[in-house]
Write a structure and sequence with these properties.
Strand 7 (about 320-330) and strand 8 form a beta hairpin. The chain has helices at about 10, 25-35, 90-100, 115-135, 140-165, 175-195, 200-220, 230-250, 260, 355-365, 375-380, 385-390, 395-405, 420-425, 445-465, 480-485, and strands at about 55, 60-65, 80-85, 105, 115, 170-175, 320-330, 335-340, 370-375, 410-415, 430-435, 440-445. The chain has 16 helices and 12 strands. The protein is α+β, with helices and mostly antiparallel strands.
């Protein structure tokens, strides 16, 4: 679900990836206003100093963005708040109360602590009112209590209202939890925008479920570390991705619907599409021919000029599928597996001769168009026992990822679900056992399920390559024969 091709800003910018993505220029305005009421943290600050935050309100809550010292734009919020689903008007007012501008305090060098500016104003106003009332004959027993009560309310009532308002909001602080919730919020925003432009009940219901999932995830992140998420947190993220995928399938995708294919119309919701082809461009007019054998989201970045490098018939028509640690090119895009043309292994930036040896084993005896998982090669090498005699596959795949992210070759980036990713990481005859978290019923996934995953990958690759094969890069090294690979 990544795209190595440069895309228009409106298409590439994900929801909540930057502050105020829907209102260009709003960040600079809010940043200047925040700096007038606070200061950037520095080496002279104490523990009592509070960082300057710019609050962006949303329909589901808020994001509090820190103001960087270098004057740039922050990538991740420092705090996020999620309002309870189906919130009433009073609860929405509570959210606005919590996201009000921070109160200004007045500190005196001779006295410990500080008071709110509003408290000082209330004290002065009540004093003047008491003097005026006393001159007009009001009893002093009424004037004095009222004079002291006003500043006390101004000082302590906001804290009480804060406590009451927090009962309707779940707040998440810290870099890790906010990043996790930021991705879920971007997916939920896709659902909300789709529901706003659709009359279908299924789409509106998906947005309602997404709101509940966001609320539940915020509660879990208050007590859990996202670096080792629990099964409940993973299940909610997976369900959110499934909802976005289902909604994306319901949206119209016609070639003559300008609003549907215009950059930014539905592209912002594409990160949640686990199986959607061509997220950043119009679909081909005709269906490309399916591949013999072999998932989800797409990625591809063609070279700006036609490539005239010679093709080896059996080499450039075979593809390598390998899983890797997930990375997030945007807030809501998770890439955990990649498909590249076999010839990418001959790229000069890939460790050699290791890449060429893997290439030789990869293309030997394969059918044109076949997608070969790296785990299949491990199976053929006695379960991986013979890898040290062939190549350092870990370094080769790491180099491939760097080449892809530097746009030096094309790739189909995938955000595979957990079971699908596990299937492509095991041998062609292996089985995976799982237990349903709700019913407790066991299930076994085997070779047929693995083949189904590869077939779906092949369909996505066919869409990605329609009219433009995956480019393996320039300056490729000559291949070696399979005998030398062993």
């Amino acid at each position: 679900m990544t795209d190595t091709r440069p895309t228009p800003p409106s298409a590439a910018a994900a929801h909540h990836e930057r502050p105020f993505t829907d209102a260009p220029g709003r960040w600079e305005k809010e940043r200047g206003r925040a700096l007038r009421t606070g200061h950037l943290p520095g080496h002279t600050c104490t523990a009592a100093c509070e960082p300057v935050l710019v609050v962006e309100r949303t329909g589901w809550g808020w994001l509090a963005w820190p103001v960087p010292q270098d004057g740039g734009t922050p990538e991740h919020p420092q705090q996020m708040g999620v309002l309870t689903p189906a919130a009433t008007r009073a609860q929405h007012l509570a959210l606005r109360w919590l996201t009000r501008r921070p109160a200004r305090h007045i500190a005196r060098a001779t006295l410990p602590g500080s008071v709110r500016l509003s408290t000082a104003c209330a004290a002065l106003f009540s004093l003047l009112t008491a003097v005026f009332a006393a001159r007009h004959g009001l009893p002093i027993g009424v004037v004095l209590p009222a004079m002291f009560l006003a500043p006390l309310l101004a000082e302590h009532l906001p804290d009480r209202l804060d406590a009451l308002s927090r009962d309707h909001v779940r707040t998440v602080d810290g870099d890790g939890p906010c990043r996790y919730l930021q991705r879920l919020a971007a997916l939920h925003t896709c659902l909300v925008r789709a529901a706003a432009g659709s009359t279908r009940y299924e789409v509106r219901r998906s947005a309602e479920i997404g709101r509940q999932l966001l609320w539940d995830a915020a509660g879990l992140l208050q007590t859990q570390d996202p670096r080792s998420p629990s099964a409940e947190l993973i299940a909610r993220k997976r369900l959110m991705l499934q909802l976005v995928h289902q909604v994306s399938q319901m949206l119209p995708h016609t070639a003559d619907a300008a609003t549907a294919t215009a950059p930014g119309a539905h592209d912002a919701c594409t990160p949640g599409r686990s199986l959607g082809p061509n997220p950043f461009g119009a679909r081909p007019a005709t269906h490309p021919a399916p591949r013999p054998a072999p998932t989800p989201p797409l990625q591809k970045g063609p070279s700006p000029v036609p490539h005239t490098a010679p093709r080896q018939a059996a080499a450039l028509d075979v593809y390598l599928l390998f899983a890797h640690e997930p990375y997030y090119p945007a807030a809501a895009r998770e890439i955990n597996a990649t498909v590249v043309a076999a010839a990418c292994l001959l790229h000069p930036r890939v460790r050699q001769p290791d890449g060429a040896r893997i290439h030789a084993r990869l293309v030997h005896g394969r059918r044109p168009g076949e997608i070969v998982p790296l785990s299949t090669l491990s199976h053929e090498l006695d379960g991986g026992a013979r890898w040290p005699q062939v190549a350092d596959w870990q370094t080769v795949t790491e180099d491939l990822l760097q080449v892809i992210r530097d746009h030096d070759c094309d790739a189909l980036g995938l955000g595979l679900p957990e079971i699908a990713r596990a299937l492509v990481c095991v041998g062609p005859h292996s089985e995976i056992r799982s237990v349903d978290s709700t019913s407790g019923a066991p299930r076994v996934y085997g070779p047929r399920d693995r083949l189904a995953v590869l077939v779906e990958v092949g369909r996505q690759l066919a869409w990605a390559e329609a009219g433009c094969p995956l480019w393996p890069g320039d300056g490729l090294l000559p291949p070696i024969n399979s005998g030398e690979a062993t």
